Amino acid sequence: MRFGVTLPNTGYGGDPATLIQLAVDAEEAGWDGVFFWDTPYAAAPDEPVMAFADAWVLLSGVALSTERVRLGTMLTPLAWHRPWLIARQAATVDHLSGGRLTLSVGLGAPDEQGPWFGGDEFDRRTRAAMLDEAL
């Protein structure tokens, strides 16, 4: 069995340098993987905006700062991203890490999150079709 840790890249944990150091610490402590949330929003409309570090940028830093741990996102919701950009980012992180990327993609969280950041509202069926097309 292997064990991974999810590091909080939103809220009080949104400082990139701290998160990369925590990933190094996790590797040194024997964890097998380090993962970040990949979400397009930093807060709900009725909440204050929090610090937020981009998961894919963080993964590049972790890839260059560690040697052994697997790394990835908890899940990348492809309907909220440009699939070609995620493909390029994933290939880059995988190359930088020497093949340690775990690529996790899916539908993402609830339907109402699109409008939170100025995007469209997609129901699950629409997001599923977009996921199929992207894959």
CATH architecture: Alpha-Beta Barrel
Enumerate the spans where pLDDT stays under 50 for 5 or more consecutive residues.
none
The proportion of residues forming helix, as a percent range, comes to 25-40%
Helix count?
Answer: 5
Please tell me the overall pLDDT.
87
Query: How many domains?
Result: 1
| Largest sheet: spatial strand order | 1-2-3-5
CATH homologous superfamily (4th level) name: Luciferase-like domain
Q: Strand share of the residues?
A: 5-15%
At the third CATH level, what is the topology name?
A: TIM Barrel
Structural class by SSE content: alpha/beta
- Morphology: globular
What summary fits the major beta sheet? Answer: 4 strands, parallel
CATH class: Alpha Beta
**Radius of gyration, in angstroms, nearest whole number:** 15 Å
Characterization of this structure:
Strand 2, helix 2 and strand 3 form a beta-alpha-beta unit. This protein has a four-stranded parallel β-sheet with strand order 1-2-3-5. The protein has five helices and six strands. The protein is globular. It has one domain: Luciferase-like domain (TIM Barrel, Alpha-Beta Barrel), CATH 3.20.20.30. The protein is of the alpha/beta class and 135 residues long. 39% of the residues lie in helices and 13% in strands. The two termini are 28 Å apart.
